[in-house]
Amino acid sequence: MTPAARLAAAMALLDRWLAGEPAEAALTRWARASRFAGSGDREAVRDLVYDAIRQRRSAAALGGAPDDGRPVTGRALILGCLRAAGQPLPDWTDQRHAPDPLSPAEAARLAAPPPDMPRAAGLDIPDWLLPHFDQALGARADEVLSLMRTRAPVCLRANAARITAPALAARLADEGVQAGPHPLAPMALHVTAGARRLRATRAFADGLFELQDAASQAVAERVAAAILSDLPAGARVLDFCAGGGGKALALAARGLSVTAHDADPRRMRDLPVRAARAGADIALTPDPAAGAPWPAILADVPCSGSGSWRRAPEAKWTLTPDALAGLTAQQDAILKRAAALLAPGGVLGYATCSLLRAENEDRITALSAALPGWACIDQMRLDPLDGGDGFFLALLRKPA
Ligand SMILES: C[S@@+](CC[C@H](N)C(=O)[O-])C[C@H]1O[C@@H](n2cnc3c(N)ncnc32)[C@H](O)[C@@H]1O
Fold first, then answer.
1. I want to staple 349 with a disulfide (CB 3.0 to 4.6 A). Which of 103, 179, 223, 252 is the partner?
2. Boundaries of every domain in the chain
3. What percent of the chain shows pLDDT beyond 90?
4. What is the distance in A from the centroid of ligand 1 to the CA of 71?
5. What pLDDT is attached to residue 59?
6. What mean pLDDT is predicted for residues 35-47?
7. pLDDT for the residue numbered 66
8. Using CA atoms, how far apart are residues 334 and 138, in angstroms rounded to an integer?
9. For 203-227, how does the pLDDT look when each residue is reduced to its tens digit (9 = 90+)?
């Protein structure tokens, strides 16, 4: 595909997204129907689409669309992104399957000085969410939100049961993938080249690594350290909201005996295969009460995902105050259930990939009010300026 044809495809896909189709579904449908698109084209179109979603508000303004809720077009978003990147106004005349040429009105709008934008528009966040970020991040808010307008780094976790991080970096270099240490976690490697090849490497098939954000690894590491300071290696841990099992695998690699549970067991369907590849023994349970009381529990609860909006940017435009209130109620209910399953004196880890106090510190305050005698023994907050996704972790001890 020509560069202009990729832009035209991204504009059409963004129109579908703006009409309500999830971006991933639109991309999959487009790829199936576009046999002419090679893997490089698919990746490029995907990047264009996700960049525009991350920058939806500012790109719309720069691309000449109004910032007042009136319909935006995929074309405006792509033109706005090109302008934000300081690229010259496109001349598509010679390229096949290009977007329509710029109309005189469009060309005039794009040539005019950039419009003044409200702070939230410039930071690509809905107005109602900006105070939440200010409250949670203080002086870091603008820098964090600006960074969240860009792509997330690719990180992996070396499987401590099989290899060291430097040895894995060397193995991957032999397979055309460049990766170096990441400051957030001892087994984390930051992939700087060849990321698309990762899942096809021999090292992956041999279970030497898993793709996992570095902050997510830091959370699992902190949970494992707290548990292992109390209990021997092999101690039983319940991962109460295991999902795909990223943290369950990281805890197992630290020598803990992990049992995984999820209210939606389909979320765990890949976990047995991932565990087998890693050489980890992870049990799945539909009924965590059967193994209670648990000496340690991790509750990596469902949340807004606001710490990972670089990876999943659609969510920042769809979250509403009501949905946030629903999530915090769900978080309180999960904490209450997990607390009841924990043994006296045991450790409960509460984690979110959210940056919002409402889902983090406020939930711990609510728990402390509801369950007197519980102690918060450790707390950690990470944001994208630390080098990974945003995460929150509180470690709580149940009274003995
Ligand atoms: C943030 S995700 C977990 C991510 C996972 N721990 C990881 O590291 O890959 C939250 C999970 O909680 C599950 N969940 C939601 N409500 C739940 C509940 N009441 N009890 C247990 N799991 C629940 C969801 O299905 C979802 O898979």
1. 223
2. 3-117, 155-211, 227-397
3. 86
4. 35
5. 95
6. 93
7. 63
8. 29
9. 999 999 999 999 999 999 999 999 9
Helix/strand/coil percent split, the chain, to 5: 50, 15, 35
Assess whether the C-beta atom of 334 lies below 6 angstroms from ligand 1. Answer: yes
CATH of the domain spanning 227-397 = 3.40.50.150
| Stretch (H or E) spanning 113 | none
**What is the distance, to the nearest Å, from the Cα of residue 65 to the centroid of all Cα atoms in its chain?**
28
Q: What is the mean pLDDT of residues 167-189?
A: 97
Please list, residue by residue across 240-255, b when 16 or more beta carbons sit within 10 angstroms of its beta carbon and e when fewer do: bbbbbbbbbbbbbbbe
Its CATH class, for the domain covering 155-211, is: alpha beta
Residue with tokens 């390229």: 95
Q: pLDDT-derived band of residue 388, with 50, 70 and 90 as boundaries?
A: very high
| Contact by Cβ (8 Å): 342, 293 | yes
Q: What residues have CB less than 8 Å from 92, skipping those under 6 apart?
A: 4, 98, 99, 101
**So what's the pLDDT on residue 88?**
73
Identify the residue whose C-alpha is closest to ligand 1 atom 9: 246
Q: Which 8-state DSSP code applies to residue 347?
A: E
Distance 383 CA to ligand 1 centre (A): 21
Q: Would you give the DSSP letter of residue 211?
A: E
* Structure confidence at residue 351 (pLDDT): 98
pLDDT value of position 221: 97
Active site residues: 353
What CA–CA distance (Å, rounded) separates 80 from 86? 10
Residue with CA closest to ligand 1 atom 26? 243
